[in-house]
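Tutorial handout. Part one gives the primary structure; part two gives the three-dimensional structure as tokens.
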Amino acid sequence: MTTESSRTNITILGTGTSQGIPVIGCDCKICTSTDDKDKRLRVSVLVSINEKNMVVDAGPDFRQQMLRTNMKELHAILLTHAHNDHIIGLDDVRPFNFRQKGDIPIYASEFVISQVRERFSYIFSKNPYPGSPQLDLQQIPKDRHLAIEGVTIQPIEAMHGSLPVYGFRFGDFTYLTDIKTISEKERLKAKYSKVLVLNALHHKEHHSHLNLKQALELIEELSPEQAYLTHLSHNMGLHAEVSKYLPPNVGLAYDGQQIVI
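Part two.
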């Protein structure tokens, strides 16, 4: 389990939506911004505790994100849900397989595990292609903590429209992305974190994502010391401009951001 002396090192790997920013072919002021904080890979986060590295979601930018961190070891990947921008980079765990000479544990719901098996069928065939990724699929227990490499993690279930998704609490750090609604029971698991990272797509109503107003309302209820917004569309606006109007304890997350608890 984590201890009071354990430090949680958080690296925000990506803060963009499924299209990322810049969006292909878009000439808006956000997509053409020269501010690095407006350039957003697909959403993901690295959590390092006691020298154990755990990544939440492995989308299409996973390889680029790992190269940016210069990380040498990966101890687990936790998946929030099975949309492509969260899982399609799993093939790129291969260098970690080769370096560590073993499988990479993948933690996900039963449904997400089934989706991984389907979309990466070549990995799980009777005669897998030589050099295929080595994944150890582990089902996340509902209403119970996970124990990964001595680190205790609380799964938090929410709804991405009509699709169940998982968020995760690592001690005083809570990560919730691609959510629209969350039950009172699950909200209690996320309350009073030192740091909360939460999705906020843009300003308008959306069927499966919180918008900015809804995200700020949920942050106020969950009462973290500090909150950061992620999974941001180019319709949210420029980092520098939107930041001016946020509450003092809320910021826009940006790719490469480092947070230590």
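Part three, for discussion. The mean pLDDT is 96. The longest helix spans residues 212-222.
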